[in-house]
Amino acid sequence: MQKIVIVGAGQRCYYNFAENLCKGYKDKYALVGVCDSNVKRCEFYRDTLNPDLKIYTDFDVMMDELKPDAVVVTTPDGFHHDYIIRSLKRGCDVFTEKPMTIDEEKCLAIRRAEKETGKKVIVTFNCRFMPAFVQLKKLISSGVIGKPLSIHYEYVLNTKHGGDYFKRWHRFMDISGGMLVHKSTHHFDIINWILDDEPVSVSAQGALLYYGNESRPHGERCSTCPHQKTCESYEFICDSDLLQKMYFDAEDVDGYLRDHCAFKGDTDIYDSMSVSVAYKKGTLLTYSLNLFNTDEGYTINVIGEKGRLETSTFFDEKMDKFIIRYRDGRVDEIKTPRASGGHGGGDDRMMAMLFGAITDDPLNQCASSFDGAKSAMIGIAANQSIKEGIRVNLTPILDKMR
Question: Which of 159, 386, 389, 138 is nearest to 268 (CA)?
Answer without folding.
Answer: 386
